[in-house]
Amino acid sequence: MTSLSPAQVDRAVGAVLVSAAGDALGSAYEFGPALADDVVPAFGRGHFGHGEREWTDDTSMAVPILDELAAGHRLEDPSSLETIVRRWQEWARDALDVGAQTRQVLSRIPVGGRMNAITAASRAVHDASGRSGGNGSLMRTGPLALGYLERPRAEMAAAAGAVARLTHWEDDNLDACALWCGAVRHGILTGELDMRAQLDLVPAERRDHWADLIEATEGRHPRDFQQANGWIVRAFQGALSAVAGAASPLDAIERAVRGGNDTDTVAAIAGSLAGAVWGAEALPPSHAEGLHGWPGIDGSELARRAREAVGA
Predict the structure, then answer these.
(1) How far is CA 164 from the centre of its chain?
(2) Can the keyword rRNA processing be found in this entry's annotation (predicted)?
(3) pTM (two decimals)
(4) Band of the pLDDT at 163, cuts 50, 70, 90?
(5) Long-range contacts for 145-148 (Cβ within 8 Å, ≥24 apart)?
(6) Is residue 88 assigned to a domain?
(7) How far is it, in rounded angstroms, from Cα 310 to Cα 312?
(8) Most buried of 32, 130, 157, 216, CB within 10 angstroms?
């Protein structure tokens, strides 16, 4: 039984539901130009053929993570990580869109592969190019914080890194996911946005670097980080600027979409943090209703699983 207050539970649900809403809203604008502030983004058919109000790979890949937590499993357990990867492989077989880097890693892992095979595949894809800093690890990381609201933050950071490295090996992924999960956790527990307070989750030798990246988002708009926002660092900055300059969860995901380029992913990332700060009930029904996607569930079911993940 959770010791969370009703408001905290609502914010935990928000971290999942607002992310899905941002994902679905941004889908129709993916790879498009930045939009002016007077443009109101609307749900539509996605760039890759996703239906109206259908979430994309960002949320689909987050669902198995959420489900492991809802089942009471620990993400430190290799069997949980193997289950997540197996479900990703099943989804990827006929998914409308799978990130290029993610698809490369998943295709290298044999069906039913154990952790040694998963780790080898992820590392091999990184070693082949020397880079693996796509935003695919950050887009799915928000729900992870729900399993660590009453557990040590250091354990959460380690789990965030382990889940990131299932497909994305580069250190930027570990750092960005740890910081984001820390901010989501802080938002759920306090209702406040504070990314700087999470810097201790990053190795000491990289903290100044991330402090500078965070500072560079102050007073900025996601449009300022549009170029190369498929890179995890730019996606992180774009999503953070979306939330920091917003007055509500809807405002945050709309700002993210107006940023242009990888709109569904930046809006999904922003939505996880905005939902953690303002809660699910702050998202208007116009954007909460009708959400759906893999694995054949809707927004209401997504919210139910989020409540299970926090023991509510």
Answers:
(1) 11
(2) no
(3) 0.98
(4) very high
(5) 145/15, 145/181, 145/182, 145/184, 145/185, 145/188, 145/276, 146/12, 146/15, 146/16, 146/66, 146/69, 146/188, 146/306, 146/309, 146/310, 147/69, 147/74, 147/75, 147/309, 148/181, 148/185
(6) no
(7) 6
(8) 157
Contact 179, 272 (CB under 8 A): no
Residue 94 inside a domain? The answer is: no
Dihedral sign computed on CA atoms, order 49, 99, 79, 9: negative
CATH number at residue 191: 1.10.4080.10
**d(Cα 130, Cα 106) in Å, to the nearest integer?**
18
Q: Tell me the two tokens of residue 271.
A: 């939505």
Range of the domain at 263: 6-71+133-309
- DSSP, collapsed to helix, strand or coil, labels residue 151 as coil
Contact between residue 143 and residue 66 where contact means Cβ atoms under 8 Å apart: yes
Nearest to 29 by CA among 294, 257, 218, 186: 257
**Cα-based torsion angle of the residue sequence 149, 152, 154, 156 in order, rounded to the nearest 10 degrees:** -30
**What rounded mean pLDDT belongs to the chain?**
97
DSSP 107-149: HHSPTT--HHHHHHHHHHHHHHHS---BTTTTTT-GGGGGGGT
Residues marked as binding?
Answer: 56-58, 262, 264-265
The closest of 38, 270, 26 to 142, measured between CA atoms, is: 270
Residues 80-122 pLDDT 10s: 999 999 999 999 999 999 999 999 999 999 999 999 999 999 9
CA distances from 35 to 101, 221, 257, 263, 299 (A): 28, 11, 8, 11, 27
User: How many domains is the chain built from?
Assistant: 1
β partners of residue 261: 32
pLDDT at 128 over 90: yes
Asked whether residue 123 is domain-assigned, the answer is no
Q: Is residue 2 pLDDT above 90, yes or no?
A: no
Nearest to 275 by CA among 301, 239, 236, 311: 239
Give the tokens for residue 36. 């002016």
Place of tokens 């380029």: 261
